[in-house]
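ENTRY TYPE: paired fold submission
RECORD: A
CONTENT: sequence, then C-alpha cells
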Amino acid sequence: MNAIVTARSIRPRIIVVAAVLAMLGLLAAAIAGGAARAASARGLSWAGRTKPVIVLEHGAWADSSSWDGVIRILTREGFSVYAPPNPLRGLTTDAAYLRDFLTENAALAGKPIVLVGHSYGGAVITDAAVGDPEVKALVYVDAFIPAKGESISALLARPQGAGSCIGGNPATVFDPVPFPGAPPGDADLYLQPDKFQDCFASGLSAREAALLAATQRPLAANAATDISGTPAWLTIPSWAVIGTADKVIPPALLTFMAHRAGARITYVHAGHLSLISQPGVVARVIVDAAWAAS
C-alpha cells in the first residue's frame, strides 16, 4: 500500500519534472536553432553577393608575414587574399607599385577590392586607391591616414602625435644603412633592437619581438617626408582599427585621423601590431568592410 501511495505521489512529480525538462529542451532547441540559423545566415549571407578580394599592405619594419594570422582567418571565411610586398622606398614609388598590382593583375580584374593598410601602409593605400573604381573599402590598421599635402613626419609633429616612441633624436631610434641608387641624403632606416621590442612590438613576447626585429624590412628615410596626394578616403568608405596601447602612432593621433576620414572605428587593447596580437579583431573589421562593400 505504501509503495502504491508512494508511486502515486511520485508520478505527478515525475510528470511535472518531465514537462519542465521538455520545455527546457524545447527552449534550448529553439535557442540552439536560432544560433544555428544566425550562424547559417552569416555563412550564407553572401548568396547573391560577390565576396570582395582582400588586399593587405604591410608597413615599415615588417613584411607580408605580419598578416599571417589575419590571412588564416579570412581564407577560412572563403575570401581570396593577397599580401603583396611593399617596397618601402618612398610614398610615390610605393603607391605606384601597389596601384599597378591592383590594376594590372589579371587575378583581380573586375573584382571588388577591400584594401587594407597597416602603419605606413595606410599612407600607401590612401594614395594608391585614388581613381580605382574596384576599390570599394579602405581599412586602416594602426595606420597613418594622411590628407592632401601631409607627410608621416608632419602627422607625427601634430600635438596628437606627441609621445611617439619613434620621435625625438633619430640617432637613438634608427640605424641608417646606405643602399645602392639612393638619392642624396637617403638611407634605409632600421629600428634599433631596444626600440623594436619596447616600441614597435610592444605587447608581444620577447621571443616574437626578437624574431620580427631580426627580419625587419627598413623604411627609406625620405618616405617619412614624402607628401601625400588627394586621399582616396574622400570618396571610398573607410574603417579603422586603433590599438589603445600603440606607442608608435599615439591613439590620439590615430583617432584624429580616423575621425577626419569619416572612418568607422574599432578600438582594441593592443600595441602597434594589433594585426599580430589581435588578428581576430582585425579580421572581423575587414569582413565588416567587405560585407558593406559587397
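RECORD: B
CONTENT: sequence, then C-alpha cells
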Amino acid sequence: MINKRKFHTIIFVVLDGLAAAVSWSLFFAYRKIFIESDKFGARILVELDKNFYLALMIIPLYWIFLYYLSGHYKDVWRKSRINEISKTFTATIIGVILLFFTLLLDDEVRSYQSYYKSIVTLFVLNFGFTTIIRLIEAAYIKSSLRRGLIGFKTIVVGNNQKSYQLVKELLDPRLTQGFMIQGFVSVNGDAKDHILRDLIPTLGNYKQLPALIEKYQVEEVIIGIESSKHLDINKVTNVLEDQKVILKIIPDIYDMMSGQVKMNNVIGTALIEINHDSMPQWQKLIKRFLDFFVSLLVLIIFLPVFAILSIAVKLSSEGPVLYRQIRIGFKGKPFHIYKFRTMYVNSENEGPQLSSANDNRITPVGRWLRKYRLDEIPQFFNVLTGEMSLVGPRPERKFFIDQIVPFAPHYKHLHRVKPGITSWGQVKYGYAENVEQMVERLKFDILYIENRSIAVDLRILIYTILTVIQGKGR
C-alpha cells in the first residue's frame, strides 16, 4: 500500500503535468489566433492537429522532468510557499527559454516582437497556472500538518531548561510545524530525573538513538542544546552520522547574526538544519551520467591497455590478475572492489596491513602500476555498476574503520556519499600508511563532502590526471 507522502508526491506530479498541458493548449491557441493571424493578415482557425497532440504528451513530461531536476519533488511535505514561488519562477524562466530555442524559434512571425510576445505569454501561462496549483497544494499540506493528519516523527535531545522551552513550543497547537514528538533522550545525567519527563515520554540516553530511530521510524532529531555547546552536539551528531534523519539544533544570537538561521515559517520555532547535502539534484544526475559515460568510455578505449597490463601482472608473479577485496561503501554497505594485483599472493597471512613506501610485499610490476595508479583501472567497473563514483572518499576495509572510529567518530560521515576512484584526501595527502595518517587525511574528505559539486569534482579529476602523468602515485 502506497504511503501518504508518496501519494502526495504523485498528486504534485500529476497536477504539474495538468498545469503544463493547460498552459500549452492555451499557448497553442494564442499562437494561431494572434501570432500566425498577424503574419498572414487573415484569421487562422485553431485546428488541433497531430503536432498539437504530440506536444500535449511531450511538453508536460518535459516540465515534470525539469521540476524534478530542480528538486521540487524531493519532499513535498516540507514545502515553503514563498520558496515555492521563487523556485517555480526560476524553473519556468529556464524552461521557457529552452522551449523557445528548440520549438518556437522557427515559427512564422511578422516581426521579432512576435517572439517576445510568445515568450512572455508562455511564461505567464505556465508560471501562473503552476504557481496557483502549487500554492493550493502547499496550503493543503500545511493544513494537514496543523491538524495532525500527517507529520514528522521526531525525537528531542536535551537535558536543560532550553530543551524544556523548546518542547513546550513544539507541542503548542498554535505554533505546530508538524512535529510528532515520540519522546526525548538525555545527553548527560539520568533521563528518569529529566525536566521533560512530565511533557513527553522518556526514551533513554542519546547512545540509544540509532535503535530508537529504527523502532519509531523517526525522520527528525532536534537537539535541544545551545549551538555553543559543541562537545555535547558532537557527541550526538557522531552517533547519528550514518542515520537517515534530519538534524536540527536550537540557534543562539550568534547563529542568527551570522545568517545561519533561515526563516521558512513566520509561526513556529526557529531551528538550524544541519544539512550535509550540498549538491543539488540536477548536479547529482549529471555526476551519475558522467560516472557511467566516462567509465564505459575508459573500459572500451583502454581495453588493449587492460590486456597488456593483465599479461604483465600475470608474468610478474604467481596469482590472479585481478585482486578482489571487500570495502565499506555508500550507507555502510559492503561491496567488492577490483584492482590489478600489485602484491605477492598471501601477503596478508598475518592479518590486514596497510602498504608503505618500501613495502617488500609489492611486486616490481605492482610498484610501477601504483606509481601511475594504473592498478585502479578495474574500479571503473565498480563505477559503472553504481557501487562507486569517479570522485568520492576512498573506501576502506571494516578492519581499519573499526580502528579509526574511536579516534575520529565522524569517519562514518564519509558513508553519506559513494566512495570514489580518486578523492580530495588522496589528491591533497596521498595514500595513508597507518591509522594516524588515515585520520589526518579524513579532514580533506569531510571538506569535500561539505562542498561537493560538479566543479569540485572536475578539479579533483584534473589534479588526479596530473598525478598519474607525473607518476607521483605509489
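NOTES ON RECORD B: The longest helix spans residues 4-40. The CA atoms of residues 9 and 76 lie 6 Å apart.
STATUS: closed
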